[in-house]
C-alpha cells in the first residue's frame, strides 16, 4: 500500500493553471526524486500535500496520505499532521526559522506541541537531533540564534525540526542547496538512514541530477506543471525517453567552450590581485564573568595571487573562511594583519574616497540576486548603481545607453530596464546581477556561489555567459563555490581552503583528480557524480 498517492492533481492560482493531471506515488521506505526547472511545479506539488497553498489556489483530483484525503482534510487535522507524520524541509532556511527564537526553542517547539513533553525532555530530544545533523551542543548550544549560524548550519536546524519526530513522510525541497559537498553527503546519509530505520517515505525535490541519481529509487521529471517522464532512477537518467530529460542530463555535465590558460598568452605582466599573509581575527565568546575571550581566527595567514584574465575557484567547507576572505578582498572588511593589493595598489589604510578607483575595478556577483536588489527599483536603476564610482558621471541618456548595452551583453533586452526584479526568473535575475557587476568595466569579478540556487539548464547558460564575458572583456574571476562541478567547468585553477588556511592550490583538473591534502580529498570524495551514481544503481540492480 502506498504512503502517498497523488492522482490527476490539477492546481490553479487565481485562474492560472500551475499543475496539470499530476500522478505521483511514494511507498513506505521509498525515495522519490522530483526534478525539473524552476517554475515547473515541483514546490507547488509539495505545498499541495502540506496544504500550505496561497489563498486563491484551487486544487482538483485526489491526494491521499496514509489513508487521509488531504484535499478535504480540515485545518485542525492538517495541524496535527504537519511536523509529526508530515515533515517538510524548505529551500531557504532563513525564511523558515524565527529570528527571535533560539534554535533550541524552535526544534523543541514541535516536540512539545505534538507529544506534550515537558521542557527538559523536549530540549533533550532537540539536543539529540541537532547533534545527529552535525550541530553538537559543545559547539552549537541550544541558546544560539539563527543569525549566529552560517547558511549551511541554519539548513541543518531546519532539517532537525522536520525530522525531530521521525515523520512517516518527509518532503525535502532542495535540502542541500546551501551546503558544502561534505556536509551535503552527511545530510543525505542522514536522510537515507531515516528512510531505512523508520521506513519513512521521502519526496526529494532537487535540481541536482547527481544527488537524485545517488538517492532516489524512482524519479519523476516535471516541466510546465506536467510530469514528462517517470520510472526507475537508473533507467530514466541513463536512457531518457523524453527530449526534455535528455536536455537536463546534458546540462548537468555541461562545460563551457572557452580558452583555457594554456591556450592563452603567457602573461608577463604583474598579478592583478595579490594577497600576502592576510589574517582576520574576531572577538571570541566569554566563558566567564572575568575571563578574557579568546579571539577566533577566521582567516589564517593566507597568501596567493591572481593573474589577469584567469579564473580561479576558492573551494572549501562552510565556515572555512571563504566569504570572510572575499569581504577583505572587496575592502568590505579589514585584515587583522597582512596586505591586499589590486593592480599593485594596497587596499589597506584607505578611506572610502580613496577606494573609489579600486571599487570600480572589482565587483561582486552574489549567490541570491533577488536578495541583493531593492524590489522597489526598476532594473535601469539597479544596474546603474555602480556608475556613481566613475570620476565623470554620465548624463541620463548616457547612463541609459550603458545599461542597455550591458543588458544586451548578458542576453537580456534593452527594454527589460523598465521592469522590476520580481518580473524575472531566477536565471534572468542572475543575469541582471552580472550586468550590474560589469557596467563599470571592472578587472576582477568575485562571484560568491553564483549558480548554486539555479537549476541545471539555467546554470549551464550562466556558466556560458561567464566564459563569454571572460573572453570579451578579459575579466579575472574569483569563484567562491562548494560545487566542484562548477569549479571544473569554469575555472583553470583551484584553491582549497580549510580552517582559515589555503591547504592546496593547482590546476583544477590536477587538484580535483589527484588531491594531495586531506581537505581536498574529502571534498572530492563527497562530491556527487551523475555517471558514477547511475553506474552504482545499475550495479546494485544486477546483484
Biggest sheet strand order reads 6-7-8-3-9-10
What general outline do the C-alpha atoms trace? globular
- Total count of domains: 2
CATH-wise, what's the superfamily of the largest domain? P-loop containing nucleotide triphosphate hydrolases
Binned, the helix content reads 25-40%
CATH fold topology of the largest domain: Rossmann fold
Describe, in plain words, how this protein is organized in 3D.
There is one protein chain. The chain has 543 residues and is of the alpha/beta class. It folds into two domains: 4-250, Rossmann fold (3-Layer(aba) Sandwich); 269-282 and 295-525, 3-Layer(aba) Sandwich (Rossmann fold). The chain is 37% helix and 23% strand. The protein contains 20 helices and 20 strands. It has helices at 42-50, 75-81, 93-96, 103-115, 119-132, 151-163, 181-198, 209-215, 233-238, 243-252, 322-329, 356-361, 379-384, 396-409, 426-438, 456-473, 484-490, 508-513, 518-526, 530-542; strands at 4-13, 16-26, 31-36, 57-65, 68-69, 86-89, 169-173, 201-205, 218-223, 226-232, 273-282, 296-306, 311-316, 337-342, 345-346, 362-365, 444-448, 476-480, 493-498, 501-507. Strands 6-7-8-3-9-10 form a six-stranded mixed β-sheet, with helices on both faces. Strands 16-17-18-13-19-20 form a six-stranded mixed β-sheet, with helices on both faces. It has a four-stranded antiparallel β-sheet with strand order 2-1-4-5, covered by helices on one side. Helix 4 (103-115) packs parallel to helix 6 (151-163) and helix 10 packs across helix 16 (456-473). The longest helix has 18 residues, at 181-198. The radius of gyration is 24 Å and the shape is globular. The relative contact order is 0.11. The model has no long low-confidence stretch (mean pLDDT 88).
Amino acid at each position: 500500500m502506498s504512503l502517498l498517492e497523488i492522482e490527476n492533481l490539477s492546481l490553479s492560482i487565481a485562474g492560472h493553471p500551475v499543475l496539470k493531471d499530476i500522478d505521483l506515488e511514494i511507498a513506505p521506505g521509498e525515495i522519490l526524486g522530483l526534478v525539473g526547472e524552476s517554475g515547473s511545479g515541483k514546490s507547488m506539488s509539495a505545498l499541495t500535500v502540506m496544504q500550505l497553498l496561497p489563498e486563491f489556489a484551487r486544487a482538483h483530483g485526489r491526494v491521499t496520505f496514509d489513508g487521509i484525503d488531504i484535499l478535504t482534510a480540515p485545518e485542525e487535522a492538517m495541524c496535527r499532521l504537519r511536523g509529526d507524520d508530515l515533515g517538510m524541509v524548505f529551500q531557504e532556511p532563513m525564511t523558515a526559522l524565527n529570528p527571535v527564537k533560539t534554535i533550541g526553542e524552535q526544534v523543541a517547539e514541535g516536540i512539545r506541541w505534538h507529544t506534550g513533553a515537558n521542557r527538559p525532555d523536549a530540549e533533550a530530544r532537540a539536543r539529540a537531533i541537532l547533534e545527529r545533523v552535525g550541530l553538537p551542543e559543545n559547539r552549537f548550544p541550544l541558546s544560539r540564534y539563527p543569525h549566529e549560524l552560517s547558511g549551511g548550519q541554519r539548513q541543518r536546524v531546519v532539517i532537525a525540526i522536520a525530522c525531530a519526530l521521525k515523520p512517516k513522510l518527509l518532503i525535502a525541497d532542495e535540502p542541500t542547496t546551501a551546503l558544502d559537498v561534505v556536509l551535503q553527503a552527511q545530510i543525505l546519509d542522514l536522510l537515507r538512514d531515516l528512510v531505512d530505520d523508520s521506513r519513512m517515505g521521502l519526496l526529494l525535490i532537487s535540481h541536482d541530477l547527481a544527488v537524485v541519481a545517488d538517492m532516489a529509487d524512482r524519479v519523476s521529471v516535471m516541466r510546465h506543471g506536467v510530469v514528462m517522464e517517470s520510472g526507475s532512477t537508473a533507467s530514466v537518467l541513463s536512457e531518457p525517453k523524453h527530449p526534455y530529460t535528455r536536455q537536463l542530463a546534458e546540462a548537468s555535465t555541461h562545460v563551457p567552450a572557452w580558452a583555457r590558460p594554456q591556450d592563452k598568452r603567457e602573461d608577463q605582466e604583474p598579478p592583478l590581485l595579490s594577497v600576502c599573509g592576510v589574517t582576520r581575527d574576531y572577538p571570541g565568546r566569554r566563558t566567564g564573568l572575568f575571563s578574557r575571550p579568546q579571539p577566533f581566527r577566521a582567516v589564517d595567514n593566507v597568501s596567493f595571487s591572481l593573474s589577469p584574465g584567469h579564473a580561479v575557484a576558492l573551494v572549501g567547507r562552510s565556515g572555512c573562511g571563504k566569504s570572510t576572505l572575499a569581504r577583505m578582498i572587496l575592502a568590505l572588511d579589514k585584515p587583522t594583519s597582512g596586505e591586499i593589493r589590486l593592480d599593485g595598489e594596497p587596499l589597506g589604510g584607505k578611506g572610502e574616497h580613496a577606494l573609489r578607483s579600486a571599487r570600480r575595478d572589482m565587483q561582486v556577483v552574489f549567490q541570491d540576486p533577488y536578495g541583493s536588489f531593492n524590489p522597489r527599483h526598476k532594473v535601469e536603476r539597479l544596474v546603474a548603481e555602480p556608475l556613481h564610482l566613475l570620476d565623470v558621471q554620465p548624463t541620463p541618456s548616457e547612463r541609459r545607453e550603458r545599461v542597455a548595452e550591458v543588458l544586451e551583453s548578458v542576453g537580456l533586452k534593452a527594454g527589460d530596464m523598465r521592469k522590476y526584479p520580481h518580473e524575472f526568473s531566477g536565471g534572468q535575475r542572475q543575469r541582471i546581477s552580472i550586468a550590474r557587476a560589469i557596467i563599470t568595466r571592472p578587472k576582477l569579478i568575485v562571484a560568491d556561489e553564483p549558480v548554486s540556487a539555479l537549476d541545471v539548464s539555467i546554470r549551464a547558460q550562466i556558466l556560458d555567459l561567464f566564459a563569454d564575458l571572460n573572453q570579451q572583456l578579459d575579466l579575472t574571476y574569483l569563484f567562491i563555490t562548494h560545487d566542484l562541478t562548477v569549479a571544473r567547468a569554469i575555472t583553470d585553477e583551484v584553491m582549497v581552503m580549510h580552517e582559515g588556511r589555503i591547504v592546496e592550490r593547482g590546476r583544477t583538473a590536477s587538484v580535483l583528480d589527484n588531491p594531495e591534502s586531506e581537505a581536498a580529498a574529502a571534498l572530492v570524495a563527497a562530491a556527487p557524480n551523475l555517471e558514477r551514481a547511475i553506474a552504482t544503481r545499475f550495479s546494485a540492480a544486477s546483484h
